């Protein structure tokens, strides 16, 4: 029977290298969370401190503060460290308020619903 050495334990807890660093977490439902990783477990459940949800609609974005946030590991798609020395977003992106981003999201949803309903009405034409 062999015992795991320190390097083996570190490999099994790869999130350990991200502790106390600012991360971007992409969730299964498409949400993007930013925050400082404070804790995690073997299921990749994670605790973010100073978390915020970044909402992007077209060239508009808003960071909605969430505070201390617990993320269930099964919902995590991707975790990555943010480079604090680089800008997080391209220069052409515009920061807006939470109310403005919600209006933009609603307008985007309404436009996609309209496209879908028009497509259903025109299905009989078989334009392919």
Number of strands: 6
**Given the helix and strand composition, which structural class is it?**
alpha+beta
Q: Strand portion, in percent?
A: 35-45%
Which residues form runs of ≥5 with pLDDT under 50?
none
How do the helices and strands follow one another from N- to C-terminus? HEEEEEEH
Ends distance: 65 Å
Shape designation: globular
- What value does the Rg take, in angstroms? 20 Å
Question: Biggest sheet, open or closed, and with what strands and sense?
Answer: 6 strands, mixed
Average the pLDDT over all residues and give the rounded result.
82
Helicity, as a percent range: 10-25%
**Strands of the biggest beta sheet: in what spatial order?**
5-1-2-3-4-6
Q: Determine the number of helices (DSSP H or I, runs of at least 4 residues).
A: 2
Write the layout of secondary structure elements.
Layout: H1 6-12, E1 22-27, E2 32-40, E3 46-57, E4 60-71, E5 76-81, E6 94-95, H2 98-121
Parallel strand pairs: 4-6
Antiparallel strand pairs: 1-2, 1-5, 2-3, 3-4
Explain what the structure shows.
The protein is α+β, with helices and mostly antiparallel strands and 128 residues long. It has 2 helices and 6 strands, in the order H-E-E-E-E-E-E-H. The chain has a 6-stranded mixed β-sheet. A hairpin with a 4-residue loop joins strand 1 (22-27) and strand 2 (32-40). It is globular and about 55 Å long. The chain starts with 5 loop residues before the first helix and ends in a 7-residue tail after the last helix. The mean pLDDT is 82.
